[in-house]
Structures are given as C-alpha cells and as structure tokens.
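Case study: Cytochrome c oxidase assembly protein COX16 homolog, mitochondrial.
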Amino acid sequence: MFPNAAMRSLRRNKTLRYGVPMLLLIVGGSFGLREFSQIRYDAVKIKKIKDSTFDDWKNIRGPRPWEDPDLLQGRNPEILKTKTT
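Here is what the predicted structure looks like once written out:
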C-alpha cells in the first residue's frame, strides 16, 4: 500500500507536475537555441558573397514544372528543336 500512496502524493505535487517540465523546457531550449545560433556564425565563416567574383557568371534559366530539365541545361538549340518535334 505504500507504493500507491507514494505515487499518489507524487502526482499531487505541483512542483513535480508543472515545475520539472518547465525547467526541462528552459534548459533544453537553451541547448537547442545554442545549436541554431551557431549555424549563423558558421555560415558567415564559409564564404561572403561580396568576396566572390562574378566575371565568369552565366544566367541559366531553370526548367518550368512541365518542361524536361535535361533539355534546358546548357544544351544546343538545335538539339532542343529535334527532341521537341
């Protein structure tokens, strides 16, 4: 009968019922926030876009949902005409 009484008193204890989950949420959230904020600093270290050179940059149009992506990616227009007809 003692284990039942102990479990009943633990369920009635408001500190264990509300306080412990709240503390776990705060501590767990701080660790999660630390990981997500670290991503920001790692991304800056990789490469800044203003340091990049765009001398050999070429604009390539992406395929529309109804188009075949293999036909558009840098292919010759004559090949496109033969495949579509």
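For the exam, be able to explain this: The chain has a mean pLDDT of 77.
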